[in-house]
Amino acid sequence: MRIFLIFLFFLCNVLKLSAQENPRIDLSFEDATVEEVMMMIEDRTAYKFFYSEEWIDDSLISGSYNNEDIETVLTEIFNATNLNFFILNDQIIITRNNVIYDELPTSFYPERSADTLANDKPVAVSEDSEERNHQPVFYRESGTVAAEEIETIYIGKEDKSNPKNRFILSGIVTNAETGLPISNLSVVTASGNQGSVTNEEGYYELELPAGASIIETISLGNLDVKKRIVIYNDGQLNLSLDESFEQLGEVLVDSEADRNVRSVIAGVESIDVSQIKNIPLVLGERDILKVATTLPGITTAGEGAAGYNVRGGKTDQNLILLDDAVIYNPAHFFGIFSGINPFTTGEVDIYKGNIPAEYGGRLSSVFDIKSKDANTEKFVGEVSVGPVTSNVALEIPIVKDKSGLMLGGRSTYSDWILRNLDEESLSNSSASFYDLIAKYNHKFSEKTSLRTTGYYSRDVFSITSDSLFRYSNLVFSANLNHKFNERNEMEVVVSNSGYQFDIDYESEFNNNFTSGYNINETEAKIKMNYRHSSAHNFEYGLSSKLYLVDPGEISPLGSESIVEPFQIDREQGLESAIFISDNFKVNDELLISAGLRYSLYAAMGPKSQNTYEEGLPRNESTLTGSREVGNGEVIETYARPEFRLSARYAFLPDFSTKISYNNTYQYIHTLSNNTTISPTDTYKLTDLNIKPQQAKQYSLGLYKNFKENMYEFSVEGYYKESDNILDYKVGAQLFLNENVETEVLQGDGKAYGVEFLLKKSEGRLNGWLGYTYSRSLLRLDGEFREQRVNNGDFFPANFDKPHDVSLVANYKLTKRFSFSANFVYQTGRPVTIPVGKFNPGTGQLPVYSDRNQFRIPDYYRLDLSFNVEGNHKIEKFAHSFWNISVYNVLGRNNPYSVFFVTDDGDIQAYQSSIFSIPIPTITYNFRF
């Protein structure tokens, strides 16, 4: 074989030496195809081209050459194609992707020295030649049936002057039916040595060795594909995947098959919105955020409570984002229903451990909720009709394959139900809500896209005959994404979020009034993504957010009201940040995500800011005066660095450990003396007297998958320390208080716990079992008595519930019929109760225990449902789904709260419950 190669090289050199000198040519053409230009060259020279017509496309080129040699002309006209050429005498041989070699580089024979090859004289390569390190790519097609079943795709154009032997393969993965990008999909090599996960735009990137490799996609909900890639240079391969209809209804919550083991970020949960329809919830309503509370580390203070407590954090310490815009109150009807429409939601990622550096302003978690992009090919929709609410979502193509409009709306007819009840107190009540969402997505090109979202929600309720409550969210966001090249991408986000509530009070006396509160924030953010290499992926950018807070106002309602108008001055604050992070792949086993966020907050005027004596409690006696600050002037600034670090080490492909640390700062506080978040809660900005909250969290976890990712197990422990946590003094008046800093205290907090999750994502029986042991403690201490609560010792937070168990299961009888169950057990939350009484002569008064010294009874609940899917025929107008469920099957009278009232001199204890009997519902859904 070696003698034959030497003879071949010798023959090529002889032929090359005998070839005529490259002639020079005059050539000019405009908007011509490559094939037309080759014909022109044949007419003007003695050269003949040899090629396959299927290699030549119809793209048009233009050029002008004056006395130019033929090699230069051919190099330029083939520059934008995958074609190479080889000149042999008067013959020009065209090849696609690869190069014809008439001599091999020195490094082709690694076992022989350059001197030895020089003595053999088959080639002549100089020591400083760039070709010295280039390895030719040889690929031999196999004739076996197994090999022919895998499609072979050639990528890139071989370049002898390029010394690289590894190249970047990238592309976009889309849904074959809808054309929408598929995110969180794995693209891996068959050997398992390389892998990538698609981002929100469906983009992936792999580094492959020169030559042949097998790649395959791995996902739930789509048919996997396998391709043979022969790569000669950097290039693109876009993939279009068909849906896998057999997966419908089997996996309830999906965070990708092996993401829990493989990803570097610790403490992140993902919810597959399309698969939560089987979970039985109250009144048959699909509820994304209620499903989140069945996952370890995420809970609420009680049934029907708004707000979420994540790893021992307060409800105001969660950043809830809808398409990058903040939702201040994500609940309807006191928390019984979620404010997020499940039919219009695409993805939900919850960061409860390590929070990426791009997010800031909250201590505990980030709920990153992304709405669906509208279908740009055909009109589709989904409708749900339940006993209390109805829901509709429509996707309307505007410009085929480029733009679409998604519309969604929900409403309740509870007012109509209440008016038809015989009970007078209920028939005179009012309780209704609705929410609307619209999203427009437009694809300008393969590199540039725009998404805009508008959201509005409104609640109106009147439980008592004298008060009417209204609250609403108004949100807008615009996201422009531009891809400069394969390595650089930019995202620009502009958003505005507003929340307000109003109270109308009417009584038999002349003290009727209307009162309200409003907060608004506007944010601009630029985020850059730089894919430096397969080892480094950088994200960096900056953001700025302007807060405008109207702390409250009251005005008379009606001409006869004796209420005096009153309004508290507006608060303003500017929160800005710069951030950078790097996902660093040390090797296949060790991944590191390191980030730095530097935040700067300025409390701004116009404002009259009280000042108090240093080191003394803030009250009227220690008030020293006030500072008058003009519009736009700075009252006080706070600048803080925030570190984010997470590392993953893979012992085995299906077994890893993760460790993380992050510190966070929060410049906005909730003012509330309720147990849970309330529609009438107000927000207070950090200023001269109230410092920003801060927290540090450490976590360590183990993650293991079994039976090809069918079973997932994880255990994760955490410890969190907090400072400057805002709480209230006993008997505090928080609303419509000009000097609210005198009614609150700031103290320390600590939270710790361990979380277990066992999940089965495939098979007839699927679901998950979660258990959390956690504690959340606060300490309010100071030199003076009024600064201390419980003598300055740590005491349980209102939402401290050590034991939390959740079981969600779905059993498929057939492809159409299934049973589902949801079981919850929680330790009763803390409560402060009377432990004695005394009589000052005017009646008995209670003596209360230390704050949160006792607990209400434990909470447990079982829900069951029977689910009926419509038939799976492809050619039909709509796909239907029935859900027949019973909420609280056991009829458990779970206490929501325990409170005490002095009645005729006696102290009476009362217990309130939300749902104390089984609640059956039937919900009908259809998708078209």
TrEMBL record:
Listed GO MF terms: siderophore uptake transmembrane transporter activity
Membrane topology: Multi-pass membrane protein
Cellular component aspect of the GO annotation: cell outer membrane
Example GO biological process: siderophore transmembrane transport
InterPro entries: Beta-barrel_TonB_sf, CarboxyPept-like_regulatory, FecR_C, Plug_dom, Plug_dom_sf, TonB-dep_rcpt-like
Keyword Ligase recorded: no
Domain (TonB-dependent receptor plug): residue spans on this chain: 266-362
UniProt keyword Nucleotide-binding present: no
Signal sequence range: 1-19
Main location: membrane
Localization in the cell: Cell outer membrane
UniProt KW keywords: Cell outer membrane, Membrane, Receptor, Signal, Transmembrane, Transmembrane beta strand, Transport
Protein FecR C-terminal domain segment(s): 27-94
Origin: domain of life: Bacteria
Family, as annotated: Belongs to the TonB-dependent receptor family.
PANTHER family from the UniProt entry: HEMOGLOBIN AND HEMOGLOBIN-HAPTOGLOBIN-BINDING PROTEIN 1-RELATED, TONB-DEPENDENT OUTER MEMBRANE RECEPTOR
Name under which the protein is recorded: TonB-dependent receptor
